[in-house]
Design goal:
alpha/beta; 6-stranded mixed beta sheet; two-stranded antiparallel sheet; binds 2-acetamido-2-deoxy-beta-D-glucopyranose
Length: 338
C-alpha cells in the first residue's frame, strides 16, 4: 500500500534539513549522507516471510480503466507494463528493476515470476459505481468487469491480477488523504473467487504534490517550490504528463507489493498485518543512490532535462521508486551507483 504517512515522514526529514537544497534533485552530494530512507544497508528492517504464496506463475494482468482516460495516458501506462517483461530494452531497464522483486520466494521455493502480461483491458467509462468509491467498491468494479454483457474480462483466479485505475475526476476513500494506491484480494461473496487486485488513482488534479511527487510540489509543506535563477527547480515528468508519470511509480509500488504479498500473508515487516510495511513501503521516495532526507537520489536527465531512472519499451523513460532487496538488505534499483 502506498501510504502517505510514510511519504510525510520522508518529506519531514527533508524539511528539517538544509531546506534550500532539500528538493534539489540534481546531483547534490551534500545531502547524500543525511537521514537515509533505508537506502543504506539496515539491520533494523525486520522484513519477514509469513508462509503465504507469492505470485510465482506468469501473471495475466487485466486493467480496468475507470472513468475518462486520455489515450496518451493509457499509452504511457501500457508501455510501462509491457516493459516489466521485456528483455530488449537497454540497461537500466524496468525489467532490470523487476529483478529485485524476483528475489522473493515462498515456502515452495518459487520465485516471483518475471512474466507479467497485459492480458486484457476493460473500459468502465460510464463510472459503473459512481464518482465516489469506497475500498469495497473496487471489488464490485471487478465483478462488473468480469460479468459485463460486452467485452467482459475473464475471471481468472489462477494467475489473474486486476489493476483498477481511476481517472482524474474520481474520488476514492482515503485517496490523497492516506494513500495513493493499495492492493488486496477479492472476496468470494462479492466476486465469486479470491484473486489479487490493486488500485491506483490519477493524482494529476487531486493531489499531485503527494502522489505525483517529485514531479509536483507538495503545497502543504508551507514552502514555495525551490527556484533557481527564477526557474522552477521541479523535476519534469519524462513522458510529459505529471499525473500519469507519477502514477507509474505508484503502479510499480503496488505491483511489487501485490506480487510479494498477494494474500497479505507473505512478505511484510511489522507485527500488524492490517498495516504492513511491504517491500516498496520500505523504499518510499528512493529513486537512486544517496536518496534520503527528501532527496530522491541520483537519477538521470534526458535531453530536455526530464528526470528518469530507467528505460522502457518504445524508447520510454520512467522514474520508478526502488524496492527492498532481501539479499543486500537495502533499497536497490538498476541505476544504483554501487
Ligand atoms: C530466486 O530467489 C533466490 C533467493 O533470493 C535468489 O538467490 C535467486 O537468484 C532468485 N532467482 C531468480 C531467477 O531471480
Ligand atoms: C498548489 O500550488 C500550485 C501553485 O501555487 C497551484 O497551481 C495548485 O493548484 C495547488 N494545488 C493544490 C492541491 O492546492
Amino acid at each position: 500500500m502506498y501510504k502517505l504517512q510514510a511519504f510525510y515522514y520522508f518529506l519531514l526529514l527533508s524539511l528539517s534539513c538544509a531546506s534550500s537544497l532539500a528538493f534539489s534533485w540534481s546531483q547534490n552530494k551534500r545531502l547524500f549522507n543525511q537521514a537515509k530512507n533505508y537506502e543504506g544497508s539496515s539491520d533494523l528492517v525486520n522484513l519477514e516471510y509469513h508462509m503465504g504464496p507469492v505470485l510465482a506463475s506468469p501473471v495475466n494482468l487485466y486493467i480496468i480503466w475507470y472513468g475518462r482516460w486520455k489515450p496518451t495516458q493509457q499509452a504511457i501506462i501500457r508501455d510501462f507494463i509491457h516493459s516489466i517483461s521485456s528483455s530488449s530494452v537497454p540497461y537500466p531497464s524496468v525489467a532490470d528493476w523487476w529483478k529485485t522483486a524476483r528475489l522473493y520466494t515462498d515456502q515452495t521455493d518459487s520465485n516471483i515470476t518475471g512474466n507479467i502480461f497485459l492480458s486484457g483491458e476493460f473500459y468502465d467509462s460510464r463510472y459503473s459505481h459512481g464518482g465516489y468509491l469506497s475500498r469495497l467498491d473496487m471489488q464490485k468494479i471487478i465483478k462488473n468487469a468480469v460479468t459485463s454483457p460486452s467485452r467482459a474480462l475473464p475471471l481468472n483466479p489462477h494467475n489473474g491480477l486486476y489493476l483498477i485505475l481511476t481517472s482524474y475526476d474520481v474520488q476514492v476513500q482515503d485517496f490523497c488523504r492516506a494513500v495513493c494506491g493499495f492492493h488486496y484480494f477479492t472476496f468470494p461473496t462479492i466476486v465469486g473467487v479470491t484473486v489479487p487486485y490493486a488500485w491506483v488513482g490519477y493524482s494529476g488534479s487531486q493531489c499531485p504534490g503527494m502522489c505525483a511527487y517529485p514531479f509536483a510540489w507538495p503545497n502543504y509543506s508551507g514552502k514555495p517550490p525551490p527556484r533557481t535563477k527564477g526557474d522552477s527547480n521541479m523535476m519534469h515528468a519524462p513522458n510529459g504528463d505529471v499525473g500519469a508519470d507519477g502514477m507509474i511509480s505508484v503502479i510499480a509500488h503496488e505491483l511489487a507489493e501485490v506480487s510479494s504479498n498477494p494474500l497479505v500473508n507473505a512478505w511484510y515487516a511489522g507485527d500488524d498485518p492490517t498495516a504492513p510495511n511491504e517491500i516498496a513501503d520500505l523504499c518510499l521516495g528512493v529513486y537512486g543512490s544517496g536518496a534520503g532526507g527528501g532527496y530522491v537520489g541520483k537519477v538521470y536527465k534526458d535531453y530536455w532535462g526530464n528526470g528518469f531512472n530507467m528505460n522502457g519499451v518504445n524508447k520510454r523513460k520512467f522514474l520508478v521508486q526502488w524496492i527492498w532487496n532481501p539479499l543486500k538488505r537495502k533499497c536497490y534499483g538498476p541505476n544504483a551507483m554501487d
